[in-house]
Amino acid sequence: MRAFLPFLSPAPECLALPTSLFFIPRQPEMYLWATEWWRQHANVGTSYVVHVNTGCEDMDHTRWAVASEGYRWPVVNRSHLYCCHAPPSSGCYCDITQYSFGTYGCLGVVTDTSVRFLGTDAPQNLYHHSQSSLRFDRLCKQGEFVGGASWRETYYQGPHSRSLAEVEWFGLEWQNNYLCLAVADEGSCQVGALLKLFPCSKGGNETRTLLQPDFSACEGDTFCRGVLRLSSCPDMCVGSDANGVPALSNCESESAILTRTRLRG
Description:
Low-confidence stretches: 5-12, 113-132
Radius of gyration: 20 Å
Structural class: mainly beta
Strand order of the largest sheet: 3-6-7-10-11-14
CATH topology of the largest domain: Trefoil (Acidic Fibroblast Growth Factor, subunit A)
Order of helices and strands: HEHEEEEEEEEEEEEE
Helix content: under 10%
CATH class of the largest domain: Mainly Beta
Number of domains: 2
Number of helices: 2
Distance between the termini: 26 Å
Mean pLDDT: 76
């Protein structure tokens, strides 16, 4: 097994068997070499599954996956997948991201006065949050996964443009909570208008939760500077007020420039 170096799974409970995970580069010859290696070298009693990462989580880990003989089925508990539980026709795919602003730190949710950004080991139902819970917080270390300060940037390519996404709070558990970033008062598109968590439309017709991540200058990079535009508020972007509270900013202003970190995607 020395030919492969595993990484720890962030959500091993989603898989049917105890697991080590390996990424295979996208080059076709690497995929062929890796699958042949596992067929030839997997020990008796060692099961394996090979799946693609298109961003369509459910299909990647079920119908499109290839499992060794005898692998316990289904391969995964779909409720523990990151996002994109919509059917393939939705064209859904997602990134796990963080957004930071200057010295204020990462955008996330603070649930009470004694707990700052939340770790991933506390039951989510112990905490309460409201629109005032959104904060940029210095305690988030950029590039390190923290549930309270990470987001599921989910794209649906059905009736909407490929550039539009819902930005869902990752929460404290791996299951979706379907709470998305949106302007607090619908129709309020002035500079300084507050932002809140609002039920996601999951690819539906609700435009309030549709954002346009605009990081095109460095698309695909792990760290990238750009803006999060609101489709319901022309020329308005997710930004920060003078106190580090998330609020609408003019997209041309410095207060709208965010650093986007792709944790997974």
